[in-house]
Design brief:
Distance between the termini: 33 Å
Number of helices: 13
Largest sheet: none
Radius of gyration: 23 Å
Number of domains: 1
Structural class: mainly alpha
Strand content: under 5%
Helix content: over 70%
Shape: globular
Order of helices and strands: HHHHHHHHHHHHH
């Protein structure tokens, strides 16, 4: 194996952009198709919601209230659709970033790569919940004696101690997440289930991974504000004026899933397109650090080798 170069926080945070500049057609093809799928899902949700509501109102003569079973069923299907979308999108993006592959035609699939990726996610979330429970128990074991000792005499000291304890717990969670997060990219790169190998792949770069994620968080937050700055300012103004009924618009400004899109309004269509691209690109950017670690441990073969020819238009 080639000697591994040093870890670069900025390169890790924006590795997706490196791939974009090296393989623009393949990358834009994946982003464009995924953004189109998001818009299609929003359009289907909007049209079906209007149709079903209209039929029910016509039959009953009043605006219907859905039954709890209908709400849970719809919520379950929506959650399953989101999981499948995240799975096929992550598979396509990681194949592109770690193996330089983009299937001709449709780059999304639900096959062996996605099955192994789903297994990695299941193991990861199981360990996450176990670790979160353990850290919470440790935090309570540390805080409760402080509360008993301080009593009413030192509330400030107790609050500082609680802040320190929960801050340490948060940092520990971020560190362990960063150390294990490359498991998905390693699994796609090697076409084998790789989970615990992620710990070795991030040896001595755990805090660098945390810093890369923090950089991405700041950049994506700024981008989200820029995508809909006018609406966000309007909503905050409404909240300051006490018009709390406008608060749902704040969530709508950041996600197509928060509210149906009015596709009869050109401005709403433009806003929906911007949100769809933002949602896909933000997910791809968040996969960048893990793909960076995967190609780093392979000697950066994906960066230094000539681009393969998986997608005909790029080589036309």
């Amino acid at each position: 194996m080639a000697e591994r170069p040093g870890f670069n926080i900025i390169a890790a945070a924006f590795y997706f952009l490196v791939v974009l500049f090296r393989r623009p057609v393949s990358t834009l093809w994946v982003v464009g198709l995924a953004s189109g799928a998001v818009l299609l899902a929003a359009w289907l949700g909007e049209t079906n919601a209007i149709r079903l509501a209209g039929e029910a109102a016509e039959a009953t003569g009043k605006t219907p209230m859905p039954e709890p079973a209908e709400i849970f069923a719809a919520g379950g299907l929506f959650f399953l659709a989101i999981i499948l979308f995240e799975l096929v999108l992550a598979g396509a993006v990681l194949r592109l970033m770690t193996r330089g592959e983009t299937a001709a035609g449709l780059p999304f699939r639900l096959w062996t790569d996605e099955g192994r990726l789903a297994l990695v996610w299941l193991v990861f979330f199981a360990l996450f919940f176990v670790a979160a429970f353990g850290l919470m128990m440790l935090a309570m074991a540390a805080v409760i004696p402080l509360m008993m000792i301080s009593g009413d005499g030192a509330p400030a000291a107790m609050m500082i101690a609680m802040f320190v304890v929960y801050g340490v717990m948060l940092l520990a969670g971020l560190y362990f997440y960063a150390r294990l997060s490359p498991a998905s990219a390693l699994t796609i790169r090697d076409r084998k289930f790789r989970f615990f190998e992620a710990w070795g792949a991030t040896r001595r770069v755990g805090w660098g991974m945390v810093a890369a994620y923090l950089v991405l968080f700041i950049v994506l937050l700024a981008a989200a504000l820029a995508v809909d700055a006018a609406r966000i300012i309007e909503v905050f103004g409404a909240l300051r004026a006490g018009r709390f009924e406008d608060f749902p618009a704040f969530a709508e400004a950041f996600s197509l899933a928060a509210a149906p899109v009015n596709f009869a309004d050109p401005a709403a269509i433009g806003h929906a397109m911007a949100l769809a691209v933002f949602e896909v690109v933000s997910r791809a950017l968040l996969l960048g650090p893990v793909a960076y670690v995967a190609v780093k441990t392979a000697g950066f073969a994906a960066l230094t080798a000539p681009p393969p020819q998986p997608f005909a238009p790029e080589n036309a």
